[in-house]
Amino acid sequence: MRIIFAPQFPSEMRYSEWWFTEFPLQFRLRGYDVHVLGHKYALEVKNRRSNSDMFFPVTEAIKFESEQIKEYSELGLRHDDILFLADTSFPGLFANVSFHKRPKKLFAFCHATSLNHLDYFEKDRQYKFPIETSQAELFTKIFVGSEYHQRKLGWFNTVVTYLPKYNVEYIFPTIVKKFEIMSASRPTPQKVDSELESFVERSFNLKIERPTSNTWYTYYQNLASAKILLITALEDTFGYQIVDAVTNNCIPLARRSFAYPELLPDNYLYSNKIELFDRIDNILNSGEEVPVPTLLCEKQMNNFFNVICEEMSNAVSNI
What we know:
Shape: elongated
Order of helices and strands: EHEHHEHEHEHEEHHEHEEHHH
Largest sheet: 6 strands, parallel
Structural class: alpha/beta
Number of helices: 12
Distance between the termini: 12 Å
Helix content: 40-55%
Strand content: 5-15%
CATH architecture of the largest domain: 3-Layer(aba) Sandwich
Number of strands: 10
Number of domains: 2
């Protein structure tokens, strides 16, 4: 069985760059023949760009996808080929091409959609989400990272896999704590509740730190340097910050909503200011050390690729 894998262009981000290599690697380890569309061109572009660029230019992304489409159109399909898109959130032109030339089975992962409250694409929701939904119907299965995400999408063909337990290159579990409370979220209305953060700062007479992280090394190091990672987001689908924090011995506190209850025990969640105050007060002023929580979905994360491959094998066996 061959998997034709169509990743996004690998910018300096976890989902784009790490998954660009990790998906093909894990598929090959499980015995699949894997063809990565646009791999050579992506490496050429990466060599031309600065490693500090977190996001790639739109024109570069379009060129990359054009190269993928050209490569795919010239590829001879086998009877048991699988087409796998790394992200249906930004399928661009490729989903339309796959409608005209498609193998019998199509799979994809979906990280998020225009349904996200206060997201960049929210203003285009009335146009974008119907397109996403119609494209989703082309796929045999679409894998999503949380039950919350599955409920929100409402698509008939989704499978919850959570996200994979990745191998973090830099882990600092015993570093000296220099921050009481830290935020690692982008200071946007979707990611940060400014009023709630101000309440915390006034209540505990401290400043919520936002250390600069220009590399993944400094990002993980900063997390490990904080006692608490405070998450006040008004929308999220999985919450990988929680995974990052737990990995680096930092206690995450998040809202009792979105996908967070699928990741954290209830005593690390809050529903209002009073609960949040009590959580922080216990961590900062408790006479005993408050343990870092265990991820509730850790078992599923460890089984991520096995679940995906099992779903694909079952689908192909029914051809």
